[in-house]
Structure formats: structure tokens, C-alpha cells
Amino acid sequence: MVAALPPKWTSNPLLALQHSLFPYTQTEQEGLNRTNWFMVRGFGYNSLQATKPQTIGYALTDSPVALLAWIYEKLHDWTDSYPWTDEEIITWISLYAFSTAGPTASARIYYEVSHAKTKVIPSRDALKEWTPGVKLGLALFPKELFVLPKTWRRTLGPVVFESEWDRGGHFAAWERPDALASDLRRMFGEGGPAFGVVPGATGYDDDKAATARL
Questions:
Q1: How far apart are CA 18 and CA 200, in angstroms?
Q2: DSSP of 147-182, one letter per residue?
Q3: Domain definitions of the chain by residue range
Q4: Using CA atoms, how far apart are residues 118 and 1, in angstroms rounded to an integer?
Q5: Which one is predicted more confidently, 205 or 75?
């Protein structure tokens, strides 16, 4: 889920120029429509979990029906018409219901990330700003929750790889494992733009050192 802000003249002048001069492509406009739909029609869960997670947590822990409704809504709305089977749905719900932490933990992490500011990440919006020293690879799926124009995406850091797929949604790892596997091979494989980079390392020099250790 590629979350970013529109380019600014003060921090991204070239991207801001492109943003102001060139109209969005049809694909980008459709992506913005999807993003706007999510923010207007589908963001309520986020507001609740980021402010009062314990309240919904009691319902999710006490009622299997409440847990099923809460999760299945997302499985339905956030995918690209994925044909969920009963077994898949029960498996997903069971991960929440029978985990050691319980289903409330999945709601509470939204509160924690909103209220645990640090010097490195002073706010959630800081995650939508430029991150230097990290090679970025971006994969876009049409039914993701944020589907933003290229000029927005390029404000996040040094983008070395991008792909756009014709189907897939928020749970792309489940819906389109073939697509993600292909992207990883193209980005990190021999000849790829991040060949030799160890995913999770903090910078280019660290990447080289970590690769040498491996």
C-alpha cells in the first residue's frame, strides 16, 4: 500500500512541476477514485481502532459473528473480486480468534502507531515523506486502498523499480503471489536495480556490508 502526499514546490520542485503541467492518465484517475472511495466510505475502522481500540476489541473477542463481520468486510471490499472459499475465510478468522494475543491486538496496533511518536518517526504522516538511502520498489494493484499517481509516489524516496498490475488488491500477497514473486525476482535478482541489496538493511553501505556477511 503506497501511501504518499502530493509533491510540494518546496521539497519536490521537479515533481511538483510535472504534477501541475501534465494531466493524470486514465489509470491514475481511476486510482485516485479508488483512494477517495476508501477515505470516504471505508476508513471508519481505522479511526475507531486508532482512538478506541479496546471498545471494538471486546466485541471481536466476545462474539465470533462480530469478528467474522469485521474481517470479512475487508476481505470483500479490499480485494479485486477474489473468490474466497469458506475454508480460506475460516482460516483467516481463526488467526485472529485463536492467537495468543487475541483479536484486540490487531486493532490496538493502530492506536500504538498513532500515539507512540519518536524522533525518527514524529507522526504517521512522516511515513509518507522522503526517506533517503533506501532503494524503493513499488507494486501497484488496481484495488489497493491507496492507488496514487506516479508524481506522488516518487516523493517517497529513490524509486528504482515500479510495476503496475491489471488485477489485485490490498491482500496482494494472497491474491497475486505470482505477481509479487515476479517483482521480487526482477528487483533483487541478478541484473535488477537492487541486486546485492539485503532487504531490511538501513542504507547502501550497510547493504553492501550485510551482503558481504551473507
A1: 31
A2: ---HHHHGGGS-EEEEEE-SS-BTTHHHH-HHHHHH
A3: 27-38+129-213, 39-115
A4: 22
A5: 75
